[in-house]
Amino acid sequence: MTGKNKTNSKTENKKNSLYKLYINALEIEREGQEFYRQASASAANQVGRKIFAMLADDELVHLGRLKAICGQLLKTHSCVIDLASYKISYPDIGRLFKKLAQANRDKVNPQASDLDALDVGIDLEDRTLAFYSGRLKSARDEPEKKFLSIMVREETEHHNLLADMKFYLTNPLSWFVEHEKHGLDGV
To answer: For residues 66 and 54, what is the distance between their CA atoms, to the nearest angstrom?
Structure first.
């Protein structure tokens, strides 16, 4: 094989590898978006409904990013897109959750189905985070690293939010004590 053919073969292999990454990521994000949409529709708790709906919206942004990258990859064999134009709607969803929790402090009524949905969501975020983190470790080019870093950060926020929401629903008194920074000394 000549040097030129080796270079073309490496480029083609890299393009195929990137394309597979984004196709797998599309499937993961579609699964997440559908799950959060359904969880929002069936949640018994008002805070849960709102948070699941926001997570579904975030997954739509992730899907938009991925579709743009796949389209760019197919056209130009590169995955350079303007990631800044694909911002999630709720960049500080954790803070928003805390405000919702405070506003609904007298309405904490966890249902088994809501807790089950949180467990599924946490598992989904764990798997998604493992996928993106694993790919980030082996990423070689800057656009791919930047994309994967953003996804790892956002999926970590989703995971932490769901874990905090589960704590809120299963032990509201402790959740409020922890988040309102009350000390045991009454200060």
So the answer is: 19
Instruction: Tell whether 5 is covered by a domain.
Output: no
47 domain residue, yes or no:
yes
Q: Which domain holds residue 64?
A: 14-89+110-180
DSSP H stretches of helix in 77-139: 93-103, 112-138
Nearest CA to 88 among 41, 55, 129, 124? 55
Query: Model confidence over 79-136: pLDDT tens digits?
Result: 665 655 556 565 666 665 566 566 555 555 556 688 888 999 999 999 999 999 999 9
Identify the CATH number of the domain in which residue 147 sits: 1.20.1260.10
Model pTM score:
0.76
Assess contact for 47 and 101: CB atoms under 8 A: yes
pLDDT in tens, 2-34: 655 555 566 666 667 777 888 888 899 999 999
Instruction: Give the CA dihedral 127, 71, 34, 145, nearest 10 degrees.
Output: 30
Q: How many domains does the chain fold into?
A: 1
What is the 3-state composition of the chain as percent helix, strand, coil, each rounded to the nearest 5?
80, 0, 20
Q: Name the token pair of 136.
A: 């980030």
Q: Token pair 């303007």 is at which residue?
A: 82
